[in-house]
Design a protein that fits this description.
The complex is a heterotrimer of chains A (361), B (254) and C (225). Chain A has 361 residues and is of the alpha+beta class. In chain A, 23% of the residues lie in helices and 37% in strands. In chain A, a hairpin with a 2-residue loop joins strand 18 (318-325) and strand 19 (328-335). Chain A is globular and about 70 Å long. The two termini of chain A are 31 Å apart. Chain B is α/β, with parallel strands linked by helices and 254 residues long. Chain B folds into 2 domains: 4-104 and 213-247, 3-Layer(aba) Sandwich (D-Maltodextrin-Binding Protein, domain 2), CATH 3.40.190; 107-204, 3-Layer(aba) Sandwich (D-Maltodextrin-Binding Protein, domain 2), CATH 3.40.190. Chain B has helices at 4-19, 36-50, 61-69, 83-90, 141-152, 156-159, 169-177, 188-191, 227-236, 239-247; strands at 27-32, 54-59, 76-78, 100-105, 107-111, 132-135, 163-166, 183-187, 192-193, 196-197, 201-204, 213-219. Chain B has a 5-stranded mixed beta sheet, sandwiched between helices. In chain B, helix 2 (36-50) runs antiparallel to helix 10 (239-247). Chain C is 79% helix and 0% strand. Chain C has a single domain, classed as MetI-like fold (Orthogonal Bundle). Chain C contains 11 helices and no strands. In chain C, helix 5 (90-116) runs antiparallel to helix 8, helix 5 runs antiparallel to helix 9 and helix 10 runs antiparallel to helix 11 (192-224). Chains B and C meet through helix 1, helix 2, strand 2 and helix 3 of B and helix 1, helix 3, helix 8 and helix 10 of C.
Chain lengths: 361, 254, 225
């Protein structure tokens, strides 16, 4: 990765329980999810990138130096071309939706008219809300307005701090699809802080794992999901996330066939048209191993592969086994007893039986 | 911010203030509050006779003293005592040779109850009352005179526990007129007008029982060249003014 | 109503209006600083601002009079500048009223800023607003209820002022005599009827002001929530 296309963050910031200490070089495009448990420093990191907190170190986005203590540079927040979405939307109560949007617009382009808002309003689907007062919006609507407001200033990077955390589950469908749409349409890098695996699965291109203020791992999604670190971070929810494409539909049986790498997997039909890209999630607990392939089983998806890693799992009775199937790595949860019983070890040839494929829709 | 009606009121008030002509007086007189009533009459007569307008600022003599030392724009001072005009003269804040006694106050023992006080003031020594109002001797000349009278009557020690002190003669009067004190030493001018007692019962305390309550007036330095101010002071000593002053219950300097 | 009353009423309204407006200009940045700063001077400044609340008004008036007089340092400055002395003038009364009502103006505004918290200003910064810009476009509008309270409280407080005005003004009719000192004059001169009439007007006026204040605040609350 050339330096011009990266977001480089080298910061150290003492906090009450830990010290935030990171040295990251992130891709300057796509969504980087900053993942970790509560209190791991995710929000502090985001705020430092924004300039809302003053850490010691440097922040450089694609050549633009926002902070560099060595050269005594610190650009205050209002001079950084960022868009920031706070956890609680934090819309201006004294302005209606449209005025909230034009607030930032007026400050980047004094001559801009409300017309300039149109594409973003359309992208977030809030055109019917423009004249409403903030108090009358639902949580999901507020968050969409907040995202639109952040985009209006044409930022060079979008920062989101757990945008779905304060919205109840039922209302998350008001925002999540729009975020995914954003993911497809935006050309700027996005830093997305969350502790939700679901959001990570849907949105991440790159994953940074934070624990007690330190970076445990920083890798692309595919590398991260197979990694021990993410697996242990996910605990019970350990599994893999794969990118695939819908290639066929079995309307009689209500099944969809998805090509993932060089493999084909069947999943329950969820109405996605042929040709569309889609993400899947396979939880380790839904995968079992056999030494040979069997047809007399209910399990439809079977992949041949080689064991590449055996890691301890949450419970001492279990292990997480990583199996490489050509270009994919799949995690399966196997008891130690079973491993020793079948004499399975790294390098062994096995078949993965995937009981359930969850489509991330 | 606020209803439009409210804004309009403010606007009117401000505009009025800027355009409203406050009739500029020829003489601004600082007058001890207790002399308010007679002064108003005298000023009216003076205005009628000479055409000079008089503006009367009422207050406490001590307050006026402090203010004059700070450059207050008064032309003449009618004090409630003799001390303050003398000090002003000494400090060169008043014109020498213009100080004179414009009135001599008389002390009265008064009660709202028309039956309580006898013409010899013997009720003082009795126990037909619980509270006796008296002005603070340090702050008010009438208070000092009242103390003196009590001392000379040999009653001070005995009545100490029944005393209620007012900050000034006006407050003392209010104690009695409101009934909070059954009796009180007030200014004769407060209860006597046009030749008779306004209400209640009173004993005019003989002058020999206390030092004279001299109320002096003086021309202030800033008005040295103000002919109207000098004229007012002269007028205060005229026959007509003296009549008014007497009718309000004051005596004159011997 | 006695003709003397009108100049006093007008002067009182003028004094209250001018003082409360100037006070708003002084108190707002002061309240902002107090709500935002982490300086060690915060406590001291806060105590100084609250001081007029605990000093007896006549004492306050006396010391301001000394300051404005020929020997006080403000008096000496004004004389050097050819402005004469500010005591016993409308300007002097305004200065006295401003000092006297300062805590009534600063505290509601400070409270409004503190209630607002830091988030709106952070949001404004992420939307390219400089701190000054954000103050005017976000902080002030959000603090409007507090500003309104400050304005009305200072106004009402000045209308009721007595000791300070008496000391600094000298109670000169037509020049520095306000309603409260006029009532005092009437009482001293035993013109009780006039005193009652003026007092009744003052009470009615103050009551209406406070009623209006609570109405406006309730309207403001409806808009925000």
């Amino acid at each position: 990765m050339s330096t011009s296309a990266t977001l480089s963050i080298c910061l150290s910031l003492p906090r009450a329980d830990f010290t935030l200490d990171v040295d990251l070089h992130l891709p300057a495009q796509g969504v980087t999810v900053i993942f970790g448990p509560s209190g791991s420093g995710k929000t502090s990191l985001l705020r430092c990138v924004a300039g809302l907190e003053r850490a010691f170190g440097s922040v450089v986005l694609a050549g633009a130096v926002w902070q560099d203590n060595a050269r005594d540079i610190f650009k205050p927040t209002w001079q950084r071309e960022i868009g920031y979405v706070f956890q609680e939307a934090s819309l201006f109560e004294h302005l209606n939706v449209e005025r909230n949007l034009t607030f930032g617009l007026q400050r980047v382009d004094r001559n801009a008219t409300a017309q300039a808002l149109a594409p973003i309003v359309e992208l977030l689907g809030i055109s019917h809300l423009l004249t409403r007062r903030i108090a009358s919006l639902s949580g999901g609507e507020r968050q969409r307005v907040a995202i639109a407001r952040a985009l209006v200033t044409r930022p060079k990077i979008l920062l989101l701090d757990e945008p779905l955390a304060s919205i109840d589950l039922a209302r998350r469908s008001e925002v999540l699809p729009w975020l995914e749409r954003l993911h497809e349409d935006l050309r700027i890098p996005v830093l997305y802080v969350t502790h939700s695996v679901d959001e990570l699965a849907r949105l991440a291109d790159h994953v940074v794992l934070l624990e007690k203020g330190r970076v445990v791992s920083s890798a692309s999604l595919s590398d991260a999901v197979a990694s021990r670190q993410l697996a242990s971070a996910l605990g019970e929810e350990a599994g893999v996330i794969l990118d695939g494409k819908v290639v066929a539909c079995d309307t009689l049986q209500n099944l969809t066939q998805i090509r993932v790498g060089s493999h084909h997997l069947w999943a329950p039909d969820s109405g996605i048209a042929i040709g569309n890209s889609i993400r899947l999630r396979i939880l380790a607990r839904d995968v079992s191993l056999t030494l040979s392939s069997h047809d007399d089983t209910t399990i439809q998806n079977r992949l041949a592969g080689v064991i590449v890693s055996i890691e301890p799992d949450v419970h001492p009775a279990q292990t997480l086994v990583g199996v490489r199937c050509d270009d994919l790595v799949i995690l399966c949860r196997v008891t130690r007893r079973a491993l020793t019983g079948l004499k399975l070890d790294v390098g062994a040839s096995v078949w993965c039986q995937v009981k359930s494929v969850a489509l991330i829709v | 911010m606020g209803s439009p009606g409210f804004d309009r009121v403010i606007l009117v008030a401000l505009l009025c203030g800027f355009s409203c002509p406050s009739a500029t007086a020829d003489v601004t007189a600082a007058v001890a509050a207790n002399f308010a009533a007679p002064m108003k009459s005298i000023a009216a007569a003076f205005e009628q006779q000479t055409g000079h307008k008089v503006s009367i600022a009422l207050g406490a003599s001590g307050q006026f003293y402090a203010q004059i030392r700070q450059g207050a724009p008064f032309d003449v001072l009618l004090s409630a005592d003799a001390e303050i005009p003398r000090k002003l003269e000494e400090e060169n804040l008043a014109e020498r040779g213009t100080r004179f006694t414009y009135a001599v106050g008389r002390l009265a023992l008064w009660s709202k109850d028309p039956q309580l006080v006898d013409s010899k003031g013997l009720v003082l020594g009795s126990d037909r009352y619980q509270k006796l109002a008296i002005a603070n001797a340090k702050l008010a000349p009438y208070g000092a005179a009242a103390r003196e009278a009590l001392q000379n009557l040999g009653l001070e020690g005995r009545l100490e526990s029944r005393l209620v002190q007012g900050m000034n003669i006006s407050q003392t009067f209010q104690f009695v007129s409101s009934g909070n004190a059954n009796l009180g030493f007030v200014a004769w001018s407060q209860v006597f007008n046009d030749g008779k007692l306004i209400s209640g019962s009173a004993w005019l305390v003989p002058e020999m029982l206390h030092s004279p309550i001299q109320q002096d007036a003086v021309l202030l330095k800033s008005a040295a060249r103000n002919p109207a101010a000098r004229a007012l002071l002269n007028y205060l000593q005229s026959e007509h003014a003296r009549e008014i002053i007497s009718s309000y219950g004051y005596s004159h300097a011997p | 109503m006695h003709p003397d009353a009108w100049p006093a009423i007008l002067l009182t309204l003028q004094l209250a209006t001018v003082s409360s407006l100037i006070l708003l200009l002084i108190a707002t940045p002061l309240a902002w600083w107090l709500s935002q700063t982490r300086s060690q001077w915060r406590g001291t400044v806060s105590a100084l601002v609250t001081l007029p609340l605990v000093l007896p008004p006549t004492v306050l008036g006396f010391y301001i009079l000394l300051l404005l007089g020929p020997n006080g340092w403000i008096g000496q400055i004004t004389e050097t500048l050819g402005l004469g002395l500010l005591s016993f003038s409308f300007t002097g009364l305004v200065i006295g009223s401003i000092v006297f009502s300062l805590p009534f103006a600063v505290q509601p505004i400070q409270y409004a800023f503190e209630t607002m918290g830091r988030r709106p200003m952070e949001v404004a910064a992420t939307l390219r607003a400089s701190p000054l810009d954000a103050f005017f476009s976000v902080a002030l509008p959000l603090a409007k209820p507090g500003l309104l309270t400050a304005l009305l409280l200072s106004f009402a407080h000045t209308v009721g002022e007595f000791g300070v005005v008496l000391m600094i003004g000298g109670n000169i009719p037509g020049k520095t005599q306000v309603v409260s000192t006029q009532i005092y004059s009437h009482v001293e001169a035993m013109e009780y009827a006039r005193a009652h009439a003026l007092a009744a007007i003052m009470v009615l006026f103050s009551f209406l002001v406070l009623l209006g204040l609570s109405r406006l605040r309730r309207n403001g609350e409806r808009v925000v929530s």
